[in-house]
Amino acid sequence: MQCVILAAGEGSRMRPLTTSRPKVMLPLAGKPMLEHLICNVRDAGITEILVVVGYHEESIRTWFESGSKFGVSIQYVTQRRQMGTADALKTVEPFIHDTFLMLNGDMILERSDLTNIIDLPSPVMATSTTTHPESFGVVTVANNKITSLEEKSLHPKSNIINAGAYLFDAEIFAVLKKLSLSTRGEYELTDALTDYIGDGKLTAYPLSVWMDVGYPWDMLTANEHLLERISSELNGTIEENVIVKGQLILGKGSVVKSGTYIEGPCIIGENTVVGPNAYLRPGTTVGNNCHIGHAVEIKNSIIFDDTKVPHYNYIGDSVIGSGCNFGAGTKIANLRHDHGPVKVGGRSTGRKKFGAVIGDDVLFGINCSVNTGSSIGSGTRVAPHTLVTGMIEDKTVVK
């Protein structure tokens, strides 16, 4: 069996983190999101993978290459125009042999569910449940069959949603050729499922675990979930008088300096220096070539590669891009005074604690304060002693 993974989109809701990379290459638990998916597909027994690429496709091709180092064979197909999921799927038609698994590239699934799906007769749609079905394609199910599908309804008929994982055979391509443009100006895969639903052919498979990584704060939820499963692996150097409690993955060439206190689960990448006297709290993932310095506290955050947080800083419940530098004393707030859910750009994160989303190459002067729910664009420069709040565009100078 083959697997098709759709990874061509930018992920505009993830900006500024997707300014220079596709959404599927955002890191979760020390690996690109797409790598977790590919490894689960492999472990489910599928080694022939077609990845549909587009936006910043070079980063995907460079990271995964032929797929051999991940135990799979990867073939890339470029979607030249971003014209919807059905258009993306049509690009792989010449390479499909028979039955295939199709996955959106921006979600977290369990290997066991993929194994169960491919044992079913096609066509199959994976489903999940949510407390906010109005944000997704809502389905109704009777006797394990999908009976209706409605996209982003203001009055959902159920809390069961289309999870973006399918089992198809080559018959789907004949259906795709009959599609017209949707009201959004795209060719929608969900429109192609109408015939299957009307004929009572589309089987529903309820996933045991499903996480849609649609917004930056969803990365924290997914990261927390993945970190719960790690086992300690210490490939770097831990100096004397370091306390480690819980699980820790420490990459090659990394050093944890004296006086540092780590509460796992945490991941520290390769060639990263932590300490002296730093405090890493549960849920923290630090990338490669980073510096987490003296008297720095980081809690439940994702720090991308090449970022420096060197002196007297606090980062809580935040997602920080690559190549950033925090001036001494710069801190990120992560809790509202009324303890209500934090909003970013007017949209609720659903989280009582959330700090900020910071793009790549953001430089802070000393003693800056970043307010809860801030989003700071890539390439921004922040002057010393500055309060940063709200939505900041890329390459802004904040004084």
TrEMBL record:
<comment type="similarity">
    <text>In the N-terminal section; belongs to the N-acetylglucosamine-1-phosphate uridyltransferase family.</text>
</comment>
<dbReference type="InterPro" id="IPR011004">
    <property type="entry name" value="Trimer_LpxA-like_sf"/>
</dbReference>
<protein>
    <recommendedName>
        <fullName>Bifunctional protein GlmU</fullName>
        <ecNumber>2.3.1.157</ecNumber>
        <ecNumber>2.7.7.23</ecNumber>
    </recommendedName>
</protein>
<comment type="pathway">
    <text>Nucleotide-sugar biosynthesis; UDP-N-acetyl-alpha-D-glucosamine biosynthesis; N-acetyl-alpha-D-glucosamine 1-phosphate from alpha-D-glucosamine 6-phosphate (route II): step 2/2.</text>
</comment>
<dbReference type="InterPro" id="IPR005835">
    <property type="entry name" value="NTP_transferase_dom"/>
</dbReference>
<keyword id="KW-0548">Nucleotidyltransferase</keyword>
<keyword id="KW-0511">Multifunctional enzyme</keyword>
<comment type="pathway">
    <text>Nucleotide-sugar biosynthesis; UDP-N-acetyl-alpha-D-glucosamine biosynthesis; UDP-N-acetyl-alpha-D-glucosamine from N-acetyl-alpha-D-glucosamine 1-phosphate: step 1/1.</text>
</comment>
<dbReference type="Pfam" id="PF25087">
    <property type="entry name" value="GMPPB_C"/>
</dbReference>
<feature type="domain" description="Nucleotidyl transferase">
    <location>
        <begin position="4"/>
        <end position="228"/>
    </location>
</feature>
<comment type="similarity">
    <text>In the C-terminal section; belongs to the transferase hexapeptide repeat family.</text>
</comment>
<dbReference type="InterPro" id="IPR029044">
    <property type="entry name" value="Nucleotide-diphossugar_trans"/>
</dbReference>
<keyword id="KW-0808">Transferase</keyword>
<dbReference type="InterPro" id="IPR050065">
    <property type="entry name" value="GlmU-like"/>
</dbReference>
<dbReference type="GO" id="GO:0003977">
    <property type="term" value="F:UDP-N-acetylglucosamine diphosphorylase activity"/>
</dbReference>
<dbReference type="GO" id="GO:0019134">
    <property type="term" value="F:glucosamine-1-phosphate N-acetyltransferase activity"/>
</dbReference>
<dbReference type="GO" id="GO:0006048">
    <property type="term" value="P:UDP-N-acetylglucosamine biosynthetic process"/>
</dbReference>
<dbReference type="Pfam" id="PF00483">
    <property type="entry name" value="NTP_transferase"/>
</dbReference>
<dbReference type="InterPro" id="IPR056729">
    <property type="entry name" value="GMPPB_C"/>
</dbReference>
<feature type="domain" description="Mannose-1-phosphate guanyltransferase C-terminal">
    <location>
        <begin position="262"/>
        <end position="372"/>
    </location>
</feature>
<keyword id="KW-0012">Acyltransferase</keyword>
<dbReference type="InterPro" id="IPR023915">
    <property type="entry name" value="Bifunctiontional_GlmU_arc-type"/>
</dbReference>
